[in-house]
């Protein structure tokens, strides 16, 4: 997903890139609560009948399921923020907070978009400057990456 | 300025690693799917060989080949191997191969756990088979492992139970992976109500697994503690209750039947529209019907226990609740028939197996309705009528759906068309022989022949002889199936991407090359 914010200054813009996730954190919480409730009814019922050993197995299984959801949701929290100003292009990447920051001089930055020779494989969009190359929007869907490439090209080069 | 330079080859197509270690360490969903299905096929042949031992002994009255103890070990292991070693892993294999492709995801959500959940399986199955060579032999108390009988066995008990635990852990991890993948990794635009029915049926199956496996794990652990730690969960002498085990077992065991049949419904719902050249009739009603069947499967377990004694109100409740399952099942059957109605149907092997599934599974369902009636069940209970019923559900039901799925997707998996002539030969031999095998067992049961016995009265001889002939023809017909698969893997006519005419309208998998690249959907497709 691409969210874009136009800055008041001419030629400036901010893009926030995030991967597709078909389940939000809140939906995952409701799902886990529902599963916990169902499992508690089943395991609790049997515990009341004397088969209390079902309880630890149910609990362990629920914890594993919740952990797996957490792992998966974390990988969906990655964000890339591209900030373009009159003089610089900055890319921040991280889970929740910026963990890597790359900064280029706007005048020297080039945008590369290479299509994959293999059908069904992603294209590659990257900033390049002074022999260094940073890939952007790797987690985007192909049409989204095409839109991003075109938008960046417009701002970086057409407005010069 | 901090900087990291991404190298260009990160995006090159990393094909599979070379050698045996590719299969040991693989986290690729297609490789793991192949591993699951290969294991399932081997175990299908092993479990089938056990069935042939049983049918050879039952060919004629009297004791011919094996002693009664070994006969009972064969019936127990045949069931456990077929359920946990063949049918469930085969569907897990299909899920691994097809779910990410069908929802536009690059892989399963937790690939390393996926590898682990597969590799537990062969070790657990070897452990189970090893009990045959232990003092006192393998478990011989039936797949239900009822106490107190199972507690009187030899050294096998802890090994068999540990094996069941490992199989359960494997299933749970596979189920968790499927739930997380289907909920969190669908391509943009693929809402829940746009998911292919195969994915829907597997999601519901995965929830069933999550709900029932801890109950089974708890039950067999209590068997262990009763045997080795002096507890009395199921020991009446110590204040326990053997019927409690039955409740626990069937609370797991009844949904387990649906765990084996719901993915079949999904497979059939993919195949019939393709070969009818029409969209599936009543997609949303199919989803709701599947969910209803899943829910109802939890509240009918005690229909397996009518004969242990139950209050009249309980018998009435379980009778009506069980019969209620016929309603959503009927919805599904009528929707499949409506999909075929006025369709431009062709009868390639997958479609033949799908039609046989609809007809024969419905027969199995009808005999299930007969047994739902508690007063009538007293006559059927523990007779060959039960054996005939559940085999009609599980062989021309689940196994035929697996055959249909294999023929349907084999060209996509291998890139080569299978031998249609041999496929049809496999179909006709299997369909005729499976009916010869199981249909006479209804009459045996109605005439009063009990199950799990190696010898019987001469009045049952003729039907048993027919049944055994059917079993051997069915068993050896499966060698054709194995040959067809090997032949397709080795080469042949090249399969197109779409494989079946108009198939691209019925799923994302048909938009990919045949075979699909090692890494699929590294970028998500957009679903309109």
Mean pLDDT of chain B: 93
Number of domains of chain A: 2
Classify the secondary structure makeup of chain B into a structural class.
Answer: mainly alpha
Distance between the termini of chain A: 27 Å
Instruction: Kindly state the percentage of residues in helix of chain A.
Output: 25-40%
CATH topology of the largest domain in chain A: PH-domain like
Query: How far is the N terminus from the C terminus of chain B?
Result: 42 Å
CATH architecture of the largest domain in chain A: Roll
Sheet/helix structural class of chain A:
alpha+beta
Transmembrane segments (chain A): 28-46
Organism (chain A): Methylocaldum marinum
Pfam family, one (chain A): DUF2244
InterPro entries (chain A): DUF2244_TM
Characterize this entry briefly.
Chain A: Keywords: Membrane, Transmembrane, Transmembrane helix. The complex is a heterodimer of chains A (160) and B (528). Chain A is of the alpha+beta class.
Topology:
The complex is a heterodimer of chains A (160) and B (528).
Chain A lengths: L1 E5 L6 E5 L7 H24 L5 H22 L2 E7 L3 E8 L4 E6 L4 E5 L9 E6 L2 E5 L5 H17 L2
Antiparallel strand pairs in A: 1-2, 2-3, 3-4, 4-5, 6-7, 7-8
Helix pairs in contact in A: 1-2
Chain B lengths: L20 H5 L3 H29 L10 H36 L7 H20 L25 H29 L12 H32 L13 H35 L6 H14 L15 H13 L1 H15 L8 H24 L1 H7 L3 H31 L5 H27 L14 H30 L38
Pfam families (chain A): DUF2244
Keywords (chain A): Membrane, Transmembrane, Transmembrane helix
Protein name (chain A): DUF2244 domain-containing protein
Task: Give an overview in words.
Chain A: It comes from Methylocaldum marinum. Chain A: Keywords: Membrane, Transmembrane, Transmembrane helix. Chain A: InterPro entries: DUF2244_TM. The complex is a heterodimer of chains A (160) and B (528). Chain A has 160 residues and is an alpha+beta fold. Chain A folds into two domains: 2-21 and 79-158, PH-domain like; 25-76. Chain A is 39% helix and 29% strand. Chain A has three helices and eight strands, in the order ββααββββββα. In chain A, the strands form two sheets. In chain A, strands 1-2-3-4-5 form a five-stranded antiparallel beta sheet, with helices on one face. Chain A has a three-stranded antiparallel beta sheet with strand order 6-7-8, covered by helices on one side. In chain A, a hairpin with a 2-residue loop joins strand 7 (124-129) and strand 8. The longest helix of chain A has 24 residues, at 25-48. Chain A is elongated and about 75 Å long. The model of chain A has no long low-confidence stretch (mean pLDDT 88). Chain B is mostly helical. Chain B has 15 helices and no strands. Chain B is globular and about 65 Å long. Chain B starts with 20 loop residues before the first helix and ends in a 38-residue tail after the last helix. In chain B, 53% of the residues are buried. Chains A and B meet through helix 1, helix 2, strand 5, strand 8 and helix 3 of A and helix 5, helix 6 and helix 7 of B.
